[in-house]
Amino acid sequence: MPKVSTRNRIIQKADTLFYEVGFEATSFADIAAALGLSRGNFYHHFRTKDEILDAVIAYRLDKTWAMLSAWEDTSPAPRNRILCFVRILIVNRDKIMAFGCPVGTLSAELAKLNHAAHGRATEIFALFRDWLTSQFRALGAGKQAEAHALHVLSWSQGVASIAAAFRDDAFIHREAAGIADWLDTLKLQGD
Amino acid sequence: MPKVSTRNRIIQKADTLFYEVGFEATSFADIAAALGLSRGNFYHHFRTKDEILDAVIAYRLDKTWAMLSAWEDTSPAPRNRILCFVRILIVNRDKIMAFGCPVGTLSAELAKLNHAAHGRATEIFALFRDWLTSQFRALGAGKQAEAHALHVLSWSQGVASIAAAFRDDAFIHREAAGIADWLDTLKLQGD
DNA sequence: TGGAGATTAGGACGTTTGTCCTAAATTAGT
DNA sequence: ACTAATTTAGGACAAACGTCCTAATCTCCA
User: Under the phi-then-psi rule, with left for phi > 0, alpha for psi from -120 to 50, and beta for the rest, what region is A101?
Assistant: First the structure.
């Protein structure tokens, strides 16, 4: 059995805590205690909090890229691929209602902290944006492809935000269906 | 001249710092130093951080209520009133691109902290939701009024989130126009 | 004018924070 | 089996945190 390295266990636990508690509110001790590690051991792998943050962002970028690639393999039609993205809202709705969107809330927190890693956190958004853009291009959206991509990204962000505030399950389902409907009303093929 | 009380100066500065830096990341000392107050003076007005938070939320509720009331007075048509709400995105776009939406980001942070005040923070959202609902009802949206209200609220949240991530000014204008367009496509009068 | 109450100043407390250090234990290669 | 490198343990540090305290100052009404 491939034992997960301590370093990776730290990254995954930090990923979870940064999402569920927040970056600033999560301390070294919290992560170490959650894993049963000594602080010295922890320090051997990550010397500063920013190093962990960078590792977590890189980890999220990898996971996101892998997920998008998988959708390309399993869903031939661009429309279905976009609906895979929308389905994130449904699949993860419990976590979203409790903690919001992991990408959006981290980006917002780092922006307020004026943190150097804000740019890297935004790369996760950029990954989704570019992937969605290429799907819309494949659908024939032409020059509007990126605007459509940002629109869908923004839509999902808004849903996550409001769903978290009101803990409203029905709202998520309704808006997810709304995105699908909107997709069908698009005037496509070409500018 | 009506001198602003120390208590109100604290509330307003805390309001700003909670928005621009975050609740958790703003310390007593930060607020006191920004106002040139001693910590003892500060402590006389607010004994705990939660007390300041409650006061800031109450202050925001008051400001929001006053803003919505003013729109009722100056804009007779419900459609125009809704557009007043949308225009917040344009008017405050510089702050939104830097710090996101004050309501959404505070709500998200308190949710992660599992803070008792999360419910009260959500009341600001509820204020907007109920006001928008009554505007849509006046437009003849019937049973769908609240769904429309949440949709607009969610839409603006998404725009703030993405605009903050990418610092994208054009996107804000494009989406604000998109909300106005969507308003006109609504099938109204009747449930 | 005097005295009560509100306001301000600033020191002090115990914790927790991120960071750093040394030393023991484990692992890996020869 | 011996060495070298990696990993783990846990103590120590200054700084900052929220909170509390007492003493000085100001304000205002009797």
Answer: beta
